[in-house]
Amino acid sequence: MKVGSRLLGNVPSGASEMALAVEIPLPGDATSRTQTPMALLVERAAGGDSAAFEQIMIHSQKRVMAMSWRMLGNEADARDACQEVFLRVYKYLGNFKQDQDFFAWLYRVTINVCRDNLKKREPERLRSFATDAAEEVLEIPSEQADAEKALIYAQRREVMSRAIAGLPFKERASIVLRDIEGFSTEEVARILQSSSSTVRSQISSARRKIREYCLRHLQTEQSR
Amino acid sequence: MNCKQVENLLPLFAGDDLKENRARSLAAHLESCGKCARIANEYGETRQMLREFAPPVISENVYAEISRNVWRTIEADATDCSHWKIFAGWLHPPRTWAMAVAVLIAISIFIVYFVAREPVKPPQVADRHDPAISVSPEPLQSPELTSEESPVRPADSKKGSRRRRSASGLSTHRRTHRNLAIDHSSSAVAFSGPSPATGIIEKANTEPQTDDGSDRDSAKTLRMEFQTRNPNIRIIWFSHPEPKHGSSNSKGI
Lengths: 224, 253
Description:
- The structure holds two protein chains of two kinds.
- Chain A is built from eleven helices and no strands.
- Chain A is an all-alpha fold.
- Chain A folds into two domains: 1-127, Orthogonal Bundle (Rna Polymerase Sigma Factor, Chain: A); 131-224, Arc Repressor Mutant, subunit A, CATH 1.10.10.10.
- The longest helix of chain A has 28 residues, at 196-223.
- In chain B, the strands form two sheets. Chain B has a five-stranded antiparallel β-sheet, with no helix packed on it.
- In chain B, helix 1 (3-14) runs parallel beside helix 3 and helix 2 (20-32) packs across helix 3.
């Protein structure tokens, strides 16, 4: 099996179970002087190592899932997107250049999958974006047991999810990558294949819209 | 820096996306302007809320299921080697474009070489009985020739016919424009066709006549006539080939 190419003819039966069971130790200091562990895994996966690909999935699933959830607003769509992201990674890993940042490439794939997912959505589902997100964010972490704090936390998350849902896709992607995922403006520009000035403009616009939305709705909620 | 400018820059200032000198001047403005400082605080709070906007806790089972689904799909793709997949692979966009270009080139070559290009017809050599060779009912009306010439009948193959020709041996016949005919008996060659300069060309090869008719192999005179577009202008050209040595020796053979 050659990962990242179209030669899919030699996948062993039960590869998924095998790959899930095998824990590959990440390379130690002796082998990773020039490459990061993830870069080595990517190289091995691109060479056809299915166990290395499984390790890549294990190490990046949570990031992909979180990003998809922030972009799409509900868990079901985020799971579908996450699955599609790894299928695309498997298919196109051969095109990945080793001098690139793998996670930046992975985020680009994720953004593209989310955009395709949003395009496929029916209008009814598009309208229910914020509602879905709001329902899910009401799952309050257990450590915030205090009722008042939990209520404020849930309210702020709900407002924030609606505010993000109301943004245009590019602004949403920019603000999520910059302010939530913590990439620099230049990295965001590279991921979105755009210029830094465009990304700065999108981030500025998104922050302004989110602030206005939050001000309007948090004040309304507090006044009730 | 006034408040309006600051207000425009505050979203970027909140995320440390401004250049150092601008950020410094904006910070100086915020120290002196309460309204702008309040807005800056709101941006800061919003950014803090964004950082807290974490996805819900997702169990490990969900990730394991995603992983299983990915492998299942990969295996399904690997085993599905149907003919349609092979055909679809050939229709992959770059190949499709390449094939389309190749087909277009092939069609263009076919059109250029086999359809659009008019085949060059070899000159038709008229048999002496070829009915396609027609004798013009009217001889060319040249003021110099009309009194001395009589029209030659190229299809006339009999020996006696030569005697019926004019004494000067000059003959003229008219052909359809795309035909060339050789009268073997009279050694007369004639063709006609459009000339780029004159429009009509006529050629005639005649031989001088003798009374006994024994000089069939003797030197022949080539005569060519070019009829210009102007009916009053005709170019007549005579050529006397060099006599063949020893031709008389072969006379009796």
